[in-house]
User: What shape does this take?
Amino acid sequence: MTRRKVGALLAIALFSVGVLVSATASSATTNAVPSWCGPKKIKLGFTDGFGGNSWRLVTTASARAEAKKCPSVTSIDYADGQGNTQKAISDIQGMVAKGVNALVVFPDAGKAMLPALRSSYKAGVVTVPYRVAPGGKAGVDYNVFIDTPFAQAGENWGKWIRRVLPKGGNVLMLSGPKGNSQGVEENQGLHKILDPSGKYKFIGEQPFEVTNWDPALTQKVLSAAIAKYPKIDVIVSDFGPSLVGALPEFTKSGRKIPALATSDGNVLGCFWKKNHVKNPTFKLFTVSTQNDHARLAIDWAVALATGGKKPATTHFPSLNFEDSTTGKPNPVECRPTLPGDIYLSAELPAAVQAKLVKG
Amino acid sequence: MSRGLATVSVATIGLFVLSYVVASSSVTRGTLLTMLPFAAALAIASLGQTLVVMQGGIDLSVAGGFSLYVVILTKYPAGDNARLWPAIGIAFLAAIAAGLVNGWLVGRMRLNPIVATLGTNALLFGAVLWYTAGIPTTTTARLARVGGGTWLGIPSPVYFAVGATALVTVVVKLTPIGRRFEGVGANEVAARTAGLRVRRHQSSAYVWAQILYFLAAAMHAGIVNQPTAYEGNPYLLATVAAVVLGGTSLLGGRGNLVATAVAALFLSQLDQFVLALGVSYATRTLVQAAALAVGVALYTVNWGGLSRRVVGRRPAKVAPT
Assistant: This one.
């Protein structure tokens, strides 16, 4: 090999190294490491009390996607309690035994999960429960609890109702099982906004009609309410997609579908698009169904374990998503080619969600 | 007219009169159009339960089977009408398979029906979760038209329920095969002595039951646009309640098929009635439980003997003065 050839090869090699370096540098700037991601390498665990519905699937996938943004997270382990409190507890113990450094927990069983959370915290694992209050204290039983103020969703619905029904009206609220804390708090938020005007009347069982979030029962409850109350001006529900089978009850009774304040879901958006022309009173307002709540919990756990910057808040806010009257923050969205059980308010792209729920 | 049919018919008419007087909103056209399809699905499923009870058995796998057929009928087509027929075929085969498992466990292996069908129920729910991971799918438009549609102003599931009741009644009451079936249920020993294949009859009841659950599930999937993976759960207690209110003895024997279907209507209207009363969820549950207790008491308590005992004792206690 002549000296010239060697020189040429060397030049090429140097050039390619240069290109590579600049390429990695540019990719590093586009995929910037988030501020909550510190330098310390960690193993992350994520446990769910119940993983068996599309909302949970999207939420779990969101948590994974969030954790992957941080290169210091070397592994992510997930366990599904399958609605069994005992399994959910042993899942946490299993994660601790496996040696995870940070653990994010969806404690569905509430206070029953506290001892397991405490033992994980005492074992030196960064423990971050979210969404369902486990009782106990931050800094004693776990590091931090990432909550969401359900009353805020009620307030957001209330403000919208005041805008679309300025003259007042009859409000019918539907929620899940009797006495569930989510429904109770939402109802308080709703009352806080609507009561001062004195123009809004809450009808049906108080604080809300019990539907167990079951579509068949929702259908029966709604048809009974339609027959009983000649005037329903707005329905408030914390599980919008379950109303799709029930709202046609209005049409069956020869009435127009009223305004609806609820949470988002693709199937609901598509239902609105199909029916709003024939039902001019059918105005739709949704708050985000909050799949991204898991992301904030992951940010906190990773920040505490890797030495990153802590997020600014421990509260995941209730965010307005769709409004058919103003189109703000978004007009009503429908992706007819994608499954009904996806949530367009989530950060996770719709196509990725569709793949998830189709299995 | 059997005693069961007479009792439950009077009770149902009474309930409708009471509904009209006390809570008229529960008998408006809109609520009836909502209640009737659910009543129809319950009636069909309850016919299946009646067949099993007639053989002295009980089928606790109705919840799992029903849920499985609902998810097959919604998830397999996933909104594509063209795939609805294959889905119906698959669900039908699944129903026969589930029935054969129950029939084999109870008829052949002589397991206690409660234990055997409870096991099958867990198996069927396992299949539901394996197939769907618990994720519901929206009903296909064509099936929703059948379940949610009306024909001549009457919800179409009602025609299916009336048809199924008529067919099952005619077969059981008027054909030789049906008479044998009822005979086996009434007296196993006598039937065996008469040369009837007792075990085969007992096993077949579970297969026919699952086929009826399959039909009920198809109706239900059409009525509820967004069925969950656990739609069968409420049908467990409700089908047994309909059988009992219809006057079929849990010990087996004669089956009151028409009475079962009427009892399904009674239970569904009772649901709407208490909803229309506007009482709290707790009261609603209590009223339903009380209705069931009264229904069972009507058939099982020996009212004649009880009144004779109460009335007959009184003069004896009066001491002469």
Observations:
- Chain A has eleven helices and eleven strands.
- The two ends of chain A are 58 Å apart (CA to CA).
